[in-house]
Amino acid sequence: MTDSNELEKDLERFQAKFKDLKDEIQKAIVGYDELLTDTLVAVFARGHILLEGVPGLGKTFLVQTLSKVMGLESGRIQCTPDLMPADILGTHIVNENEEGRRVMHFEKGPVFANLILVDEVNRATPKTQAALLEVMQEGSVTAGGETLVLPKPFFVMATQNPMEMEGTYPLPEAQADRFLFKLRVPFPDRETLVEISKRTSGFDAPELKKIITSDEIKEFQEIVSRVPIADHITHYAAQIILGTHPEMREHPGEVEKYVSYGASPRGMQALVRGARVICALDGRTTVSVEDIQRVALSSLRHRVILNFQGEAESKNIDALINAVIESISTNVSA
């Protein structure tokens, strides 16, 4: 059994390191306080992130900044319709050895890094998307009968633009399910826009320090995974998942009317893993109902699929998830 005093000390270290990380990132990135928190939560929960937002909001810059302050090797994949799986995974090429003989050599692709930015993932063809998402799940690349393990820690941050539909291949539901969180990058408000202009009108970029090492990231990932979660909290998370399914009795009426498919078991994993990190950041040693609610939208918005009527009426998935939470929260508190 984990010693509670030892866990409390570890969580204090985690809180301090998390604050230092966020402060350093905010030297370069203006605003986006909640987005930065959720991004770092996903990193320490060992999950991949799907970022959605219109162009020009700094999604690429966010990944570059993260790689600097976390001391991680980064890779970038710009998705286009002609991108092939070999372009991201790597391919075998023929070289000559010292004896002049031809030998096959595997040239590694950009996925062999710690932090991968996949720009406009919905512009890649389904074949290339499938290859990328398989790597995200397995953490390795198989080529010519040989399995090559990717470096750890390993994170993928994929971006997609909701506005452009021409020449795009939307992620299938089963593929999107592999992302721990789907985060929306909001358009900045007036004060933030003014601050952005002040910081970026010059030519000098802020000097960013490396705050954490890859070994420390893995250590803190292991620490937050030890945060206890009581059975009734796990049952509450399960109720939320079941509440998104139209065929279940636990759902509110809107779910049956507008939802085709509910969240998968991976959604349950995302709720628990994300809630553990939120709990650790709050300095508590056991997960609460509020922690589950805090990560519910990020964990489930890409896992709840609207039916034809829901699409036709442009139903807001976040509002449907909130309706599920409201329908069961009173039962749990009681």
Please write out the topology.
Layout: H1 4-25, H2 33-44, E1 49-52, H3 59-69, E2 74-78, H4 85-89, E3 90-96, E4 102-108, E5 115-119, H5 126-138, E6 140-143, E7 146-149, E8 155-160, H6 173-176, E9 181-184, H7 190-200, H8 214-224, H9 231-243, H10 253-258, E10 259-261, H11 265-281, H12 289-300, E11 305-306, H13 308-312, H14 317-333
Helix pairs in contact: 9-11, 9-14, 11-12, 12-14
Task: Describe what is shown at a glance.
This protein has 334 residues and is of the alpha/beta class. It is 48% helix and 15% strand.
Describe the structure.
It is built from 14 helices and 11 strands. The protein is an alpha/beta fold and 334 residues long. The protein folds into 2 domains: 1-206, 3-Layer(aba) Sandwich (Rossmann fold); 227-334, Orthogonal Bundle (Helicase, Ruva Protein, domain 3), CATH 1.10.8.80. Strand 3 and strand 4 (102-108) form a beta hairpin. It is globular and about 70 Å long. The model is unreliable at 330-334 (pLDDT under 50).
Counting H and I runs of at least 4 residues, what is the number of helices?
14
**Shape, per Cα inertia axes:** globular
Structural class: alpha/beta
Cα-based radius of gyration, to the nearest Å: 21 Å
Report low-confidence residues grouped into runs of 5 or more: 330-334
Name the beta content range: 15-25%
